[in-house]
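Entry 0007
Protein: Peptidoglycan/xylan/chitin deacetylase (PgdA/CDA1 family)
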Amino acid sequence: MRHPVATLAVPLTGAALAHALPAVTARNTPRRLTPHLAGEGRPGGVALTFDDGPDPLGTPAVLETLAGLGWRATFFMLGSQVRQHPAIARQVVDAGHEVAVHGTVHRNHLTRTPLAVRRDIRLAVEQITGTTGVRPRWFRPPYGIFSGGTHWAARDLGLVPVLWTAWGKDWRAGPPVQIVAEVMHTLRDGGTVLLHDSDCTSRPGSWRSTVAALPLLAARVRAQGLEVRPLADHLAAPC
Ligand SMILES: [Zn+2]
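Output (structure tokens):
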């Protein structure tokens, strides 16, 4: 399948590139990708995922809020962040959450060779596993963008790629109500939510808006009778 991102003709640079590309990906995710790759799981709930951590400020704040809500989530970590903040990575696991792989550095795979992509992902798996004691199962590339090398590397390393069906665009550090509105715009029963517990690729302090949005999101999700869970539960095969 040809990825829609590859058809982009508009030159994009810097921050515009960083966030315009995933927009294209996400708009096409539910229809063009397989349900599993898009993060569509069992009915009756939604998966909650956080990218770009661990962050020494954002991640503990997210963990505290999740504990108050009684939610468990999946954290797609960057190997570079885990190397800088190993204790925070371990806190995520100790709190009962799931760790997953986002790569070592946050670079678009379309700009890298397949071997470089594989090495990047392999090093991230080793960093996360060595630090937390848990070998990740799920993988999500930076910006949600796949190259041919991404698919090959993930398969070769025994990882399962998972994107998302709804996101809060929380990197903009907008009002929490706006983050929740963005999520609810496309969130359906069985969907997967993307948020960020780190501002390492976002506006500084953006995680504060994310943290403030979580209780508001809880009210909306509960009103629909949906539970919130990590991907391991969400994508489990029905009994
Ligand atoms: Zn990211």
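Curator remark: The first helix runs from residue 14 to 32. The chain has one domain: 37-234.
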